[in-house]
Amino acid sequence: MQRLSEEGESRVTALAKPFRVSLPAISRHLRVLENARLIKRQRHGREQLISSDAAGLEEARKWIAQCAAGWETGFDTLDELLKTAQHITPQKGKTR
Questions:
Q1: Domains identified in the chain, total number
Q2: Using one digit for the tens of pLDDT, what is the confidence trace for 43-59?
């Protein structure tokens, strides 16, 4: 995704080149990204050009940000719970 964002359109074979994965496997991965609306595929004859889909990426970014906010709230709550539990439960080997 980063390469597509930086370079714009790219051929499937160029995207696959740095990876030790078969071209059919790369195509399956690209199909998943396309179905998730993270990339767009255009055919020019036998050549397929792949580009990132800015609208889909923005939607994914918003969703991830919402999840991260929930995780932060959950971690803050857990941190407070653990601090409270440490004050209530005596430490091993210590007496009150």
A1: 2
A2: 888 888 999 888 988 99
Pairwise CA distance, residues 80 & 65, whole Å:
23
Give SS3 for 21.
Answer: coil
In a domain, 95, yes or no: no
93 is a domain residue: no
Task: Name residue, tokens 């407070």.
Answer: 80
Domain that holds residue 74: 54-88
Mode of pairing for the β-strands spanning 39-44 and 10-11 = unpaired
Q: What is the DSSP string of 38-77?
A: SEEEEEETTEEEEEE-HHHHHHHHHHHHHHHHHHHHHHHH
Q: What is the DSSP letter of 10?
A: E
Instruction: Look up the pTM and report it.
Output: 0.62
